[in-house]
Every structure is written in structure tokens, then in C-alpha cells.
Amino acid sequence: MVSGTLQSELGVSPDIRRKKPVTPPLIAPSEPSEIGDTFSLIARIYPSFPGLKPDELSFRLDELRTFAESDPEGFLFDLNARATPEERDAVLRIMGVGEEDIVSIQGFGEQQRLTQLVTDVFPEIESLEDFNRLIGTDFDSFLNTIQRGEVTLEKRQLLETMGLEPDEIESVLGIQRIVVELDGIRQQVTRTPDNSLYDTNGNWVGFYNWADGTVFNPYKAEGLGEKARASFVTGIGDVLSVSSGVALRLGYDDVASKLSTTASRLQRNAVPTTSADFQVSDLLNPEFYATKIVRTIPFALSLAPLAIGGFYAGAGLAASFGLGTIWTAITGGLTSAVLTRPLESALEAGGSYNDAIARGKTEEEARAEFDEVFRNNLTLVGADAFEIAIALAPTPKWVPNALLKDGLVRIARIGSKVIIVGLSEGGEEVYQDMIQRRARGEDWKLDPVSKEVFALGMIMGMGMGLGGSVITNIVNTSKENMTPEQLSEFGKSVSGFQEEGLTTEQAELKALDVVAQTPEGAQVVGEAVETVKQEPKEVTPAEVTPTEEVKPIPPPPTKEAFEAILQAELIKEGFIAPPT
Description:
By secondary structure, the protein is mainly alpha-helical. The protein has helices at about 1-10, 35-45, 55-70, 70-80, 85-95, 100-120, 130-135, 140-145, 155-160, 165-170, 225-250, 255-265, 285-320, 325-360, 365-375, 380-390, 400-405, 410-440, 450-480, 485-500, 505-515, 520-535, 560-575; strands at about 175-180, 185-190, 195-200, 205-210, 215. The protein has a 5-stranded antiparallel beta sheet with strand order 1-2-3-4-5, with no helix packed on it. α6 crosses α9. Mean pLDDT is about 60; it is low at about 1-35, about 305-345, about 380-430, about 460-470 and about 535-555.
């Protein structure tokens, strides 16, 4: 009866989604000479059966037969999950299943094993038919999936079950054998598609550097250069990690899973920190900049395209309405802020979501933290506008000619921006830290963590100010190196863009794009970039002539003062009537 029931079920293609093993009733051994082997086999496969006695074996086997007859597929799934193929066949023989049926059941077991492996490697696939269809119609997608991430035992076993030879398996997995130098000795290692290297014992030894053929292990990073490189890669992982939190909050679980997997792989580049709590003296330690500061750069870079593009787009829009210079800059900054702030808020909130899950919070509680952090971070739009306008604004017109002549204008201009933008960004980071702690239900205090947050934000803000100055410097240096013909063409383009409503600085930036379309123009711009990169950050003149003091840039106005100034400017420009 058992044999026929199991055989009739073999033609059914089981759903590939793994079923939970079904725990059958208690079992016990029975009688004569083979009872020792039978008893130990059943006891080993079903360890949850208490009080197993030899005289109970027959009764327990009857219970197993009843289980097999009532739920053949469930019985086989459960047995295959508990036993090796040899143990499974032995149990079936004890239960009285014939050899022909056992051969058929062996095929069922292989099918079950294959479905389980497919599910492990391709979680989104629900049946063997879908898996066969993937291989037959989209083999590139199959390769991309199986080569993504680490080479796992399940991936190897799946390819073995599909009948591939060892060399074919390595080819499909994208594995290569290369020789590199490890600890001063050249030896063979295995390189996987994600550039990880493993020694002959399967131990991870680092990443392969294509540029020079060396091995890079962040845990053995020596020198500031290697530590900075590892920290930058880790920073990319940080961006992907918080992005996965955003994806989870929005319900894109598959995207979140892929982002999280990639992020964790990149974040293992993190250079171990040797210092304890942050101290002000860390600002004088080069390693602080090579690790902590460099790690924050990818986050800033992820916002840069929207910030820079939004600034010039918004400034051009303001110019088309005829607003004054200062309001053109403010409008440009606001446009950038409107574009970048939601993204930065989402990334900050995504980090809070991941942190909440890691602390054991429910998804509902994690979503609540995400929403609170996201909502409160959006209030920083005004701070972003001020920061971006200062960073990307052109040379102030009030800088004395003496500073221009002595080559100090760059210091005066960048210096003023650096101080203001830096403090603005540093204060913003502290505010974001307060938001996140409040969302976690913690009291905020100016502890070493908060001080480090402020320092990181301030230094990144300084970098933003320098970045904006670099943009305007490249334009000016390019103009100085143009041929008369290029300069003439450049001037015509500037005039054309000014007629469209752009300011001189905005028109020059767009005109430089036009010049760079030619090989000669591209060379001029490239040389300008190199020149700006090599410019000293400080210039000490041979003789300093007393000059008029540089007027400090005032702090950002309060909301009320800002509205009053805006109203006055709009009245001056004729957009609104004065109050009566």
C-alpha cells in the first residue's frame, strides 16, 4: 500500500517553494537480529522520538506507514530533509517499499534536492519549469545572478546537480586562478567575480587590484593612501546600505536585498579604528582624515549632481525674471536645496530604518522612525540653500584690487566661504543627529559622538565650499589659456546665453561647454582642470601691502529677516506694490 501510494505521487511536480518538514508521530525499534541497526537508524533520523524501546519498533513503523499513506509528498520531503540518500533508502526498505519504487523515489529525492538548491540561489523562482525557462530564454540573466556575490556551496551543488564538470562549474561561476604576491611570497589564489581573492584553504585574503596586480586587504592597510582607498569604498557601501533602508520602507524588498548584499560586501573594507571616543585633537591627526572624512565623501558625491545642476538651473530661472544678483544666488541655492534635501533626508531616514530593525524593532516601529527622521530633515531646506549659494557663487565684487594683484583673492574668497559653509554643514549634521536620537527615544547630549558628527559635517561643508570655488576657477583659467579664435567664439557664446537671461558667470560656464566640444577646446579645459588641481591652497606673498579689510560675509538671516529682505527686494524690482 505504501509502495503504490508513493509511486503514484512521483509523477507530480512539487512546488519548488520549500515545505517545512512534517514531524511524524513518535517511533521505536522492534525485534530480531537486524534490530540493532534498525533501532540506531530510526533513532538517529528521528531524534525527537522519546522513550524508544526495541519492542515498540513495529508500532512506530506502522505510524510511519500511516504518515506515508496519508501525505506521501510530505513524508518524502520530511524524510529527505532528515536523512542522507542511503539512509532514506534503508528506511524505505524497512517500511516494505520495493526496489523498483525506491529507484523512482530516488529520482523524486534528486528533484526535491534540485528544487531546494534552486530556491537557495534564485529566491524569486517558484518552480523548476520557471528555472528551465530562465536558462533557455535568458541565459545571461542566469549567469549574472549566479555570479553575483560570493561563491557559495549551494551554487556549486546546483551546478553539479545540473551535470556540469568541475572546470565547467568554475567557468560558469566566473572563477579564475591567478598568481599574486601574499606576504612576500608569490602563490596561486582564486579570484571570484566580485574581485575577492581566496587562498588554497578557502580563506579570504583580500581584493584584487586590477591597476597593479596587487592584493588589497583593508584589515592590513598600511599607510594613509591604502586606508583612504579602503574608507572610500566603505563609504560607497554606506550609501548603498542606507539606500536599502529607503527601498525597504517603500516596499521594494528585492531591490533592498540586492543593495544590502552589495553594501555589506563593500563595508567589510572598513579600516578598524584604533582610537576610542572623538577628541578635538583628532582634527590634527592625518589618519582621521584618511579614514573618517574620506568615508563620508561618497555620500556627499551622491548629492553633488543635483546640487550643482539645481543651482545653475535655479539661478538661470531667477535671472529670467530679472531678479538682482543676490536673489539670483539665493534662488539657485533654493532650487538645489529643493532637489537635494528630499534625497538626503531619505538616505538619513533609511539609515534610521536599518538601525531600528537591527535593534529588534518591528517593521511598523522602524517605519515610524523613518517617517519622523525624513519629515524633520526636510526642515533643513533653508540651510541647504544658504550653503549651496555660498559654495557656488562667483568671486565677490568687493574684494580689493590689492588682493587680486598679490594673488590672495583665492584665499579671501575661499576662506570666507569655507568658514561659513563649514559651520552651516556642521550645525546641520548635529541637528540630524538630534533627530535620529529622538526617533530612537534617546535624550540628546553633546557627547563625543555628537562632537564627531559636528566635525565630520563641518569638514565636509568646507569641501563643498572648495568644490564650488573650483568650478568658477576652472572657467577663469580656461579663459586665460584660450587662443584668440577660441576666445572670440567663447565671447559670442557668452553673449548668446546672456541674451537668454543668464548672468555672466552662468553664461560663461555654459559657453565653456560649447568650447569643450572641439578637441582643441577640450584640451584647454583639461589643462585648466590640472592647473586648478595643482594650485596651492595658501599663497604667501613676498611683501604684503596694507589693504582695505575684506568685509565678512554676514551669517544667514533668520526666517523673519529673510522674508523682510525678500519683500523689500521684490518691491525694489517692481514685482509687488509697497504696503499702504
